[in-house]
Amino acid sequence: MYCLGTSLLHPPFREINFSVIGQYVDYLVKEQGVKNIFVNGTTGEGLSLSISERRRVAEEWVTKGRNKLDQVVIHVGALSLKESQELAQHAAEIGADGIAVIAPFFLKPWNKVRAEEVLDGIQEKIPTFQGLKFSDTDLLDFAQCVDQNRQRQFAFLFGVDEQLLSALVMGATGAVGSTYNYLGKKTNQMLEAFERKDFSSALNHQFCIQRFINFVVKLGFGVSQTKAIMTLVSGIPMGPPRLPLQKASREFTDNAEAKLRSLDFLSFNDLKDGNLEACS
């Protein structure tokens, strides 16, 4: 299971707070049982950072995660393919365990290509290709990716947290998600139940996760809200998002906290001093 690392920004100028990355690593490992990280992705606001900032963030995660995290994967997608190449080269130089890349998304081909089509013959084009993160709800497309590539040792990582159990049945080998920042422990319980074929318990864990996600989605849920919840649960000051995103409202944070408590995801002992102030 991979966690999508949240960006860490100092208010009011929203500059990166590198000093708490080590604390972040320790929290993920000790509190959530998460030992793999995706850096500079959507949740990390990678595309809102400059190239030099992305390089520095990657360096810090690789350094602080050494001998603690199993894998540090750096997202190198950009609107410029040349910048992606430069970021990929940098990730290799600093000792990252892998890279992930989203294709340019502003100027793009007009035709829609299914993931199963992308994988057809991909190792001939990219010999080092290891797998994909699938973040769509189209389980038919995902299942065809798995079914048509069974002889290859690809990693099939699923990116829709609330549907992970369904993807496991279809052959997902892992997961990448933002909610694992604070629901990692519960998700690990679901994975463990699935592994021992206790499908009833696995389903109950998935339903519990869905209750929270369904609740916050109705309130309006995105990167800003993820940062607020992460600050609330971990006590690590995530700071506000970078513009043009706006910080989560206090009303959202209060409602999310109440829901976390009602689902036993958060107790009063878990709430660190100053968490609420850090969220606001």
Automatic annotation (TrEMBL):
Q: Where in the cell is it found?
A: Cytoplasm
Keywords, ordered alphabetically:
Carbohydrate metabolism, Cytoplasm, Lyase, Schiff base
User: Which Pfam families does UniProt cross-reference here?
Assistant: DHDPS
Q: Name one GO molecular function term.
A: lyase activity
What pathway annotation does it carry?
A: Amino-sugar metabolism; N-acetylneuraminate degradation
Catalytic activity from the UniProt record:
aceneuramate = aldehydo-N-acetyl-D-mannosamine + pyruvate
Assembly and partners are described as: Homotetramer.
What name does UniProt use for this protein? N-acetylneuraminate lyase
